[in-house]
Amino acid sequence: MASTRFFTVALLVIFTLNSFLPQTESVSCCLSYTKRNIHCQKLKGYTIQTYKGICDMDAIIFHTKAGKFICADPSKEQTQGTIQCLNARAKSLS
Amino acid sequence: MENNSEYQENFSYDYFEEPCETANNRKLEEVVRLFVHSAICVLGLLGNVLVIITYAFYKRAKSMTDVYLLNVAFSDVIFVVALPLIIYNDQYNWSMGTWACKLLRGIYSVNLYSGMLLLACISADRYIAIVMARRSFRIRSRALVYSRVICFAVWVLALGLSIPTLVYYEAYGDSPQYFDYSSNLTEIAADEDTSVGRRVCYFRFQGNETAQLMKVLVPSLQVSVGFLLPLLVMGFCYSSIVVTLLRTRNFERHKAVRVVMAVVVVFIVCHLPYNVALLYYTVVLFELRECSHEDAIAMTLTITETLAYLHSCLNPVLYAFIGVKFRNHFRKILEDLWCIGKRYISSRRLSRVTSEFYVSRKSTEGSVNENASSFTM
């Protein structure tokens, strides 16, 4: 009886303590590359990931209009083509 | 994640590689930090501060082992104080800045190395005392000077090994240049909220070569100098000690052997899993891998690292409180505290009994046993 009460109290303490901690976002890194072709019409922009910081490989992260992120291999022609397409689109808009 | 299927329909991609979040590890880390690490900090602080107090007030560090034990306790205390500060900063975006990041990570690294190397020194000291008992008399007469020089050398070496950490760790926001081509302004604002990211305290390099070198060198040094070297020294010294102890005819030898085994087994159980995980992590570092795999590696590192942290609260028990002499001094502290609290003589009788027990015990101890007094239970 006493032990169940102890556990209930302990669990309560645990949950209250847990709710005080801010939910931290973990760092996300690309670990592999997409093999598919990406249409630049569906993209919003891109981020460059380098292994000089917290991540351990180079990558281009494409941001889609639907709010998704896609990892691409920066050394691939396809990827460079997509970036050029984005650049061209930006120029034509301005 | 919920709109994944809907998104796939819109997009005709049935599969794409997204940045890996290691979400399971994040949850695990939060729970472990809150409950296990906090317990380790409290217990580690308590045990090691008691060791320091005992040495400071009741037992002047006389032998070589005493000096080492005091240094191990210092190292553990600093580590245990740095740990919650690191966790706090990790939770709150490294609000204390780059210097706090360098300092805390540096302290962590220095104490990791000094702690491990000092444990190797303790095993070497016990080896000299027991295996080379005849020759050791001359060496040990100048022991205090030697041990201070050796401790100083250990701290300098630990600092030297931590230089890469001190130089290359920085606190910075983890979302680099974002090239936005969308014309919809509201969308940009919404995106900025999510992708601005938090500040992390981690390696940052200018050049590609240094990045590749240091990301491999730092964990490799930690595994080789911070684990394998002490393991080899301890393995050699303690196995020789056990052989010597088993050859002597001493009624307390089995207890001493058991203590030696406990010291070695606890060291291996605490540090081997973490170092194996760290080595594996370093080997696959630059390879393409699945997110679930990365999550599993990260979780393994979190769990094994906690096990390694645990060692800093077991050290006082394994090395200091296990010794008869140390325990007697410690008992005196407790009695004195009791006396201060009670201010009555009732406890005086108890202290006389203890000291008689201590004297009678000491006179029965042989020469090997005298040297091995830190082993006797």
Automatic annotation (TrEMBL), chain A:
GO CC entries: extracellular space
Cross-referenced InterPro entries: Chemokine_b/g/d (IPR039809), Chemokine_CC_CS (IPR000827), Chemokine_IL8-like_dom (IPR001811), Interleukin_8-like_sf (IPR036048)
Keyword Secreted appears in the UniProt entry: yes
GO MF entries: chemokine activity
Source species: Anguilla anguilla (European freshwater eel)
Protein name according to UniProt: C-C motif chemokine
Signal peptide from the UniProt entry: 1-26
Localization in the cell: Secreted
TrEMBL record, chain B:
Membrane topology listed for this record: Multi-pass membrane protein
Positions of the G-protein coupled receptors family 1 profile domain: 47-319
Main location as per UniProt: membrane
Annotated InterPro entries: CCR1-9-like, Chemokine_CCR6, Chemokine_rcpt, GPCR_Rhodpsn, GPCR_Rhodpsn_7TM
Molecular function GO labels: C-C chemokine binding; C-C chemokine receptor activity
Coiled coil: none
Cellular localization per UniProt: Cell membrane
Entry-linked SUPFAM superfamilies: Family A G protein-coupled receptor-like
GO cellular component, one term: external side of plasma membrane
GO biological process: calcium-mediated signaling; cell chemotaxis; immune response; positive regulation of cytosolic calcium ion concentration
Annotated TM spans: 34-58, 67-87, 107-128, 149-169, 223-247, 259-284, 296-322
Stated family: Belongs to the G-protein coupled receptor 1 family.
Name of this chain's protein: G-protein coupled receptors family 1 profile domain-containing protein
Organism from which the protein derives: Anguilla anguilla
